[in-house]
Design goal:
Layout: E1 19-28, E2 39-48, E3 51-57, E4 69-80, E5 82-84, H1 96-103, H2 108-113, H3 118-127, H4 130-146, E6 149-155, H5 162-179, E7 182-190, H6 201-218, E8 224-229, H7 236-248, E9 253-257, H8 265-271, E10 276-279, H9 285-294, E11 297-300, H10 302-307, H11 316-322, E12 326-328, H12 342-353, H13 357-363, H14 366-371, E13 389-392, H15 399-402, E14 409-414, E15 417-421
Parallel strand pairs: 1-4, 5-6, 6-7, 7-8, 8-9, 9-10, 10-11, 11-12
Antiparallel strand pairs: 1-2, 2-3, 4-13, 13-14, 14-15
Helix pairs in contact: 4-5, 5-6, 6-7, 8-9
Bound molecules: N-(iminomethyl)-L-glutamic acid (NIG) and fe (iii) ion.
Length: 423
């Protein structure tokens, strides 16, 4: 590639050019209505002041100002920047010991009930300094960013007390500033019952509703609220109370639903008008219908199914039949999905959940943006949207899912600035 490198590898290296033309490229715009990928062959993009000003076939490219920067992409493919809409990437420690125990036969639930699982990461996160959380989170986020991610959602949920939950959310926000990746934060106070509330479930749910949510809102640290509805976590009724509190504070809600057992989580999420219900391996037909009626998006997390060696497949055919949009995310976390590669995630979505490569890619671009309520700003290559895009060394966009984590990201553009370009 003969393209120039600007502003360089880091955000501090310079401000994006006012006008940038990307030419000699094929575009997977992911705009619905055309072919599967919204393809524009032999296309070009005009980026102005951090937004997409024009997209189309290069022969129709309007004349740019003479001093505009021009990047020749030599026939590479451009997609919208990837949107990883479900992660838990801020945490202390790791759970490799539990991985070994599970390989010897222990189940995720047995480990959780014995005080390990989420609670072991809670102990490590409470003990971690804010700087250490920032450094380890940054290392993980940079791996995602190098593989094309321009927007990420990050949940709390390993603090389970007001101070540590807020610290996690602060770290998540700071990561956005440090890396330039757009960060959306989600308060997941209802992730597990902390040991100090053993025997007082109602007391902990009150803490989440009456203290954690208001404190996060007051500090401007949460863009949404999530809960874990599961036998080893919270009941539908408890999650409903958390959702009522979130809604009263004007925050959108999402749910870890029907991952390990059918708890009626999909229907619960729909009843509360949730933006998304996530996991859903065990969701039933009634839940799917309810999600369709409510416009709740299904976020599929094949990394967790794979890592927990659960071969239950979410009801993908029913989601298609009823028109529930499918998003795909890494679920990057230390316990059930230590998956640091969004491109491999596309592959897993196809192989384990039988999505088509196009569904997987739209799931990590257009539909993921919808799950975050950001569809007006990101997720497709369309005039007016933010200039967030990824350039790939492939001959066809299906290769993103075909190579198992191998498709190379040649460049990432965020807000109009080119962050990495391989020669
Ligand atoms: O999305 N399901 C609940 N929460 C995480 C896992 C958390 C953990 O095990 O640390 C998930 O799979
Ligand atoms: Fe999760």
């Amino acid at each position: 590639m003969t393209g120039r490198v600007f502003p360089g590898d880091s955000e501090e290296a310079g401000s994006p050019p006012a006008t940038l033309v990307l030419r000699n490229a094929h575009l997977a715009t992911m705009v619905p209505g055309g072919d599967a990928y919204g393809t524009v062959r032999d296309g070009a993009l005009l980026l102005q002041d951090g937004r997409i000003a024009w997209v189309g076939p290069e022969r129709d490219l309007p004349p740019a100002e003479p001093d505009a920067d021009v990047l020749d992409l030599h026939g590479r493919w451009v997609t919208p920047g990837l949107v990883d809409c479900h992660t838990h990437l801020v945490f202390g420690g790791d759970r490799s010991g539990e991985f070994e125990l599970r390989l010897q036969g222990a189940t995720y639930e047995e480990i959780a009930r014995a005080g390990g699982g989420i609670l072991s990461t809670v102990r490590a996160t409470r003990a971690a300094r804010e700087d250490d959380l920032l450094a380890s989170g940054r290392a993980r986020l940079e791996l995602l960013a190098r593989r094309g991610v321009t927007t990420v959602e990050i949940k709390s949920g390993y603090g389970l007390d007001v101070d540590t939950e807020l610290r996690m959310l602060r770290v998540a926000r700071a990561l956005g500033g440090q890396t330039g990746v757009r960060v959306q934060t989600t308060l997941l106070g209802a992730h597990a019952l902390p040991p100090e509330y053993e025997g007082d479930r109602a007391g902990y749910v009150r803490l989440v509703c009456d203290e954690m949510i208001p404190a996060a809102v007051q500090a401007g640290l949460a863009d949404a609220v999530d809960a874990f509805c599961e036998e080893i976590a919270f009941t539908p009724e408890e999650c409903g109370r958390v959702f009522d509190a979130a809604t009263a504070h004007g925050l959108p809600v999402r749910l870890h639903a029907d991952q390990r057992t059918d708890q009626g989580g999909a229907a619960l999420a729909a009843r509360h008008g949730a933006r998304s219900a996530d996991h859903l391996e065990h969701a039933g037909e009634a839940g799917v219908r309810a999600m369709a009626a409510a416009g709740t998006i299904a976020v599929l997390l094949p990394g967790a199914a794979h890592f927990l060696r659960d071969d239950t497949v979410p009801p993908v055919a029913a989601f298609r039949t009823h028109g529930v949009p499918l998003a795909v995310a890494t679920d990057l976390n230390p316990g059930s999905s230590p998956l640091l590669d969004p491109v491999l995630t596309l592959s897993l979505a196809c192989l384990l959940f039988r999505l088509t490569p196009e569904e997987a890619l739209s799931g990590m671009t257009r539909v993921a943006a919808q799950a975050l309520g950001l569809e007006a700003e990101i997720g497709t290559l369309e005039p007016g949207k933010l200039a967030d895009l990824a350039v790939w060394d492939v001959d066809h966009p299906a290769e993103l899912a075909y190579w198992m984590g191998g498709a190379t990201c040649a460049a990432v553009v965020r807000g109009g600035g080119v962050l990495t370009v391989r020669e």
